[in-house]
Amino acid sequence: AGIPFAIILTAGFREAGAEGRRLEAELAKAGKEAGVRFIGPNCQGAMSIPSRMWCVFGSVSYETELREGSVSCAFQSGGFGYAVVNLAEAQGIGFRHIVSSGNETDIAMPELLSDFLDDAGTRLAFAYMEGTPDARQLLDVGRKSLETGKPVLIWKGAQTEAGTKAAASHTANLTGNYDLYRAAFRQSGLIEVHDIEEIVDIAKVFAQGRLPKGRAIGVLSISGGSGIVFADRAIKEGLALPSFSPQTVRGAQGHHPLFRLVGKSRRHDGRRLQ
């Protein structure tokens, strides 16, 4: 029956120069001729938390107690990706499948993200990517994300000339013009993120499986100033802040008895705190 899938950890392929490119072309040809789909080369492996599969190397191989959850992720940089996983896990995020994709000679980021969206246990997918041979496939991933109701977060590396040069010696993926990637993200519904804190915040919201139905949000703040700043930022980001209904105001007062001003201004009666 043969081996249908493989993970190739070894580096020294196209990211290493002309000889590496030749070796990688031979590897791709051998995989097609043998009918073997593979992840890598130049990657750190893959993990499946529910099935307890740890096909990885390095310090991450000792992380055998990762919290199981509904977030699946793929990274073109294994070291960076697993650092993100550890930091997010420390903030309470649980994971399902984690893949370091490396040079993506065969299985590339769009295919991995599409597979995550097909997985019944995955509610949110995240990727760190430097580039992909066919960025148009990301549009298909975005459409699938909207159809399934499963958000896809993407952290795009190699946004500048310096970053692009670094990526060439890292995974040698086709980084392309960052503005084109950003336009593709917005057009297709993919959510671009820029730091770990943003990933954690969005994952905590979306991993619950409850997606917003529109742009309207409500704000409850213990500080007038922070509430104002939040309102300003929300409007600038295209959100809406409708007035609270009397029923909502009464409900909020029931949960927060020490707060008199909820939803609209009222005279302080001396017995409650604003």
**Named CATH topology of one domain:** Rossmann fold
Please give the count of helices. 9
Low-confidence stretches: 167-174, 261-274
Sheet with the most strands, sense and barrel status:
7 strands, mixed
CATH architecture of one domain: 3-Layer(aba) Sandwich
CATH superfamily of one domain: Succinyl-CoA synthetase domains
Helix content range = 25-40%
Radius of gyration: 23 Å
Q: What coarse outline follows from CA principal-axis ratios?
A: elongated
CATH class of one domain: Alpha Beta
Please give the alpha-carbon distance between the first and last residues: 72 Å
Major β-sheet strand ordering: 4-3-6-5-7-8-9
What is the percentage of strand-forming residues? Answer: 5-15%
The strand count comes to 9
Short description:
The chain is built from nine helices and nine strands. It is of the alpha/beta class and 274 residues long.
